[in-house]
Amino acid sequence: MSITSTANRIFKVSDIEEIKRQMLNWVKPFSIYCLLDSNHYKDGHHSLDCILATGAKRQLTIRNGHALADLQQFIDEKPSWLFGHLGYDLKNEIWQLTSSHPDYIQFPDLFFFEPEIVIRLVGHEIVIDADNPEEVFAGLCNASAEPAQDGPANMSIQNRISRPEYITIIQQLQKHILRGDFYEINFCQEFFSTSTGIDPVNVYEKLKQASPNPFSALYRVNDSYLVCASPERFLKKEGHRILSQPIKGTGRREAGNVEADERRRSELYNSAKDRSENVMVVDLVRNDLSKICREGSVKVDELYGIYSFPQVYQMISTVSGELDDGVSFADIISATFPMGSMTGMPKRNVLKMIERYEKTRRGIFSGALGYITPTGDFDFNVVIRSILYNASLKYLSFLAGSGITFYSEPESEWEECLLKAEAITKVLSS
User: Which of 91, 208, 237, 248 is catalytic?
Assistant: First the structure.
């Protein structure tokens, strides 16, 4: 990556994973930080291996109202690195809807900050943007590389929705599909624990070891934490080009059995149900991007791609386009958010049904976390496969969902949710 500021300093390191552990222990005292890690995943679209931002020169916190207009003004104030999230409930502003479910994690609907310190890992080099880069680097080197030793959490994980109730809800959603209310819907359920004390940094390290996914993150806004092992990109912009990589289709891996594992991969690729879900969300993404891209430029770069992750195979498609001149960040988000893979189609109808049938406010879950560069490029993930934690309330939560179509089998959808939650459950019980 080119160096654009005289304040930048480059330092050589020999052990990247060790310095990542030191970064985690070094950043703990800060009340606001964002760590994004690709875990060395190579898909041809990653610009950064790992980046950490902390401290806040300025920040924007919005729980409701004119969030996107205020964010655009915040972006336009001056070119700078910005890190933060778009909460799922921005849908209420974009689509003129409401939410009434309880919110136990209490992330703002939107939060962005200009960091005092940005640390980028590029190969075996650390690039530090700060007023005192040598001091920051010395602090990193002096930080411990050892993970914290958690005491017993005494955690009891509960389901917000029982298995029988879940199956009944899926059957009701299929009746809506039969009536033509919508074609496909992403329905999520919550798993939670109360009176729980955890070290989010330690939990992040464990989750990363169990699921080293390309859009992993550790994010703190005061007492609210996100521990994320997402495999999915929402949107990336480089120059005039924008792309999205929706995921629809999940298959279990068969560890230690090459033949059975390859069979699972083939089954996912040839699954009529998963292909149906995937192509529907691809069409939705194409429609969203066409609102902000040059006519005829939106294309499907890859359809039904099968990608390997530690526990699962995922069916991922890539859609891209060339942005119209003068399109702002707020314009892009208004046209595309919330992402189709976590909603369904038609989008407005399913947003209403999600609110009607789910039991918990999604908050930051199925929103997006990422960064905006000083030149206006950006990269945001989809917040899934994540642990949400409020340290003051000692409330821990994670959600899992699946795409529901008329041909879905309710029992299989329940099992898919458990499969997606499996890595998190194992981490929390270890």
Answer: 248
Q: What does 64-111 look like in DSSP terms, one character per residue?
A: SSSHHHHHHHHHHHS---EEEEE-GGGHHHHHT----S--SS---SEE
Q: Which residues contact 293 (CB under 8 A, 6 or more apart)?
A: 242, 321, 322, 323, 324
Residue 380 neighbours by CB under 8 Å, 6+ apart: 86, 233, 234, 235, 236, 368, 369, 370, 371
Q: What is the rounded distance in angstroms from the CA atom of residue 13 to the CA atom of residue 7?
A: 19
> Catalytic pick from 114, 184, 190, 232?
232
Task: Give residue for tokens 């590029």.
Answer: 122
Query: For 66-75, 147-156, 234-243, 290-299, which range has the lowest pLDDT when averaged over its residues?
Result: 147-156
On whether the CB atoms of residues 235 and 378 are closer than 8 A, the answer is: yes
> Radius of gyration of the chain from Cα atoms?
21
Most confident of 44-58, 149-163, 239-253: 239-253
- How many CB atoms are closer than 10 A to CB 147? 16
Beta bridge partners of 241: 238, 322
Helices 67-77 and 329-336 pack at an angle, to 10 degrees, of 150
CB atoms within 10 A of CB 29: 8
Share the mean pLDDT of the chain: 93
Give me the phi and psi of 234, to 5 degrees please: -85, -65
Residue 248 appears among annotated catalytic residues: yes
Q: Is the pTM of this model over 0.90?
A: yes
Beta bridge partners, 261, equal none
If we measure between CA atoms, which residue out of 126, 175, 167 comes closest to residue 20? 126
Hey, is 216 helix, strand or coil? strand
Q: What is the tens place of the pLDDT at every residue in 288-319?
A: 999 999 999 999 999 999 999 888 899 999 99
66-91 tens-digit pLDDT: 899 999 999 999 999 999 999 999 99
Give burial (CB, 10 Å; 0-12/13-18/19+) of 395. Answer: middle
Domains and CATH numbers, the chain: 8-144+152-246+324-331+356-429 (3.60.120.10)
Residue 2: pLDDT band (50, 70, 90) is very low
